[in-house]
Specification:
The chain is α/β, with parallel strands linked by helices and about 220 residues long. The protein has a single domain, classed as Rossmann fold, CATH 3.40.50. It has a five-stranded parallel β-sheet with strand order 2-3-1-4-5, sandwiched between helices. The longest helix is centred in the middle third of the chain and has 25 residues. It is globular.
Length: about 220
């Protein structure tokens, strides 16, 4: 039986990486085979693309070029990691996927959403997550968290999006919420302004219920 494909989305500083890692530990402890991956990246080629996309030195990167780089990374990611893991019956936990491209390049960069959807259809061949967990919080809060994390952990090499202004991040958040409204059956919007433990409790409840239905 094919495995479940679950994605985590949210603005910068929403806590995706923390929550998805904790969920992996929960599933592993329950004996559920799971694969954790991320975008952009997830493969050696994708990681090279990631460095281009997130490097603050590339501030002049054209929005359309940015979009195409994300698509290229995703195509490689699907071929090497996501599709084989799903076919092997593993639950795939992915930190960002197609919704991120719509939110960031569509709503954030204001590229045509219809064009992005068509490009993504070609790349993914229509693959969609069974579940998308959207960790939501105000853009001001998330951006403050992300910039503080980058400063304390020395992550300036991947801070290109954190350097965007607040208006950009507000458009991204609004875009995510619009996507969630369009597909309420797939999205679960989780309040990410709470403690990590409170968030994880809700995430585990949502995912456990999904996996029970899959049996």
């Amino acid at each position: 039986m094919p495995g479940a494909f679950i994605t985590f989305e949210g603005i910068e500083g929403s806590g995706k990486s923390t929550q998805i890692s904790r969920l992996l530990n929960h599933l592993t402890a329950a004996g559920i085979p799971a694969t954790l991956t991320r975008e952009p990246g997830g493969t050696p080629i994708g990681d090279q693309v990631r460095r281009i996309l997130l490097d603050p030195a590339n501030r002049l990167l054209d929005p359309t070029a940015e979009l195409l780089l994300y698509a290229a990374s995703r195509a490689q990611h699907l071929r090497e990691v996501i599709l084989p893991a799903i076919a092997a019956g593993r639950t795939v936990l992915c930190d960002r996927f197609s919704d991120a491209t719509l939110a960031y390049q569509g709503f954030g960069r204001e590229l045509p959403v219809a064009t992005i959807r068509e490009l993504d259809r070609i790349v993914t061949r229509g693959l969609k997550p069974r579940l998308t967990v959207l960790l939501d919080l105000p853009a001001e809060t998330g951006l403050g968290r992300a910039r503080g994390r980058n400063s304390s952990q020395g992550l300036h090499a991947e801070a290109r999006f954190e350097n965007e202004d607040l208006a950009f991040h507000r458009r991204v958040r609004d875009g995510y919420l619009r996507l969630a409204q369009e597909e309420p059956g797939r999205f679960r919007v989780v309040n990410a302004a709470r403690t990590p433990d409170e968030i994880q409790d809700e995430v585990r409840t949502i995912v456990d219920e999904l996996l029970k239905q899959s049996k």
